Amino acid sequence: QVQLQESGPGLVKPSETLSLTCAVSGYSISSGYYWGWIRQPPGKGLEWIGSIYHSGSTYYNPSLKSRVTISVDTSKNQFSLKLSSVTAADTAVYYCARHDYSKTFDYWGQGTLVTVSS
Amino acid sequence: QSALTQPASVSGSPGQSITISCTGTSSDVGSYNLVSWYQQHPGKAPKLMIYEGSKRPSGVSNRFSGSKSGNTASLTISGLQAEDEADYYCCSYAGSSTLFGGGTKLTVL
Q1: 3-state SS of A35-95?
Q2: Among A84, A111, A112, B56, which is least packed by CB within 10 angstroms?
Q3: Are A61 and A41 in contact (CB under 8 A)?
Q4: Cβ-based neighbour number of residue B83 at 10 Å
Q5: Does B60 contact A at CB distance below 8 Å?
Q6: Mean pLDDT of B85-92
Q7: Residue B100 and residue A48: Cβ atoms within 8 Å?
């Protein structure tokens, strides 16, 4: 069974960089699929942040592209998100998920709340 | 790129059928039959209910079905049950990008 688990600080100060990691178990990232990050502000809808292919190719939401970096560490079977220059608008539950070429997200992490506040 | 458009809320009584629409453009929903639908209960991660427009993952009830016409995809839930009360999101392939709908809150009366 494929499982994903997000980890990282739950509180980030404005203007700093948000960093999260998604550990994958039950499937080797290097075997295929895309690995993505999605966020959900409190009481609002889902927003795709970006994805990385197992080969390392990245795809970002145009509205966040200038601030986002997604990387993969196949040796640790995990992938990471960095979002720079955060503001209160970046406060959200951040999910990691696996998807295929059709953007079908079949496995999701439980989500982690990140609050941007001084 | 804008989010896909969904109604904010829909409701139905147990046993009835409801349909949730998801409207995009000719660049996303209209060009590909690659819309997926997710169910989200409060405090939980989204769960895949329909993929590639009309396919159901193993374990998802056949009361859930998907379709598409032009730039609009639809999710139909038949035989409504209390446990179907949740938020529903559509998601579309859009080339190198991915678009989600704003979400629809389903209330089972």
Answers
A1: EEEEEECCCCCCEEEEEEECCCCEEECCCCHHHEEEEEECCCCEEEEEECCCCHHHCEEEE
A2: A84
A3: no
A4: 10
A5: no
A6: 97
A7: yes
For residue A114, what are the β-bridge partners? A92
pLDDT in tens, B41-81: 999 999 999 999 999 999 999 999 999 999 999 999 999 99
The dihedrals phi and psi of A79, each to the nearest 5 degrees, come to -135, 160
Spatial distance between the Cα atoms of B54 and B73, rounded to a whole number of angstroms:
10
Q: What is the pLDDT of residues A49-64, one digit of tens each?
A: 999 998 899 999 999 9
Give the pLDDT of residue B1: 67
Q: How far is B78 from chain A (nearest CA, A)?
A: 23
Asked if residues A72 and A8 have their Cβ atoms less than 8 Å apart, the reply is no
The overall average pLDDT reported for chain A is 96
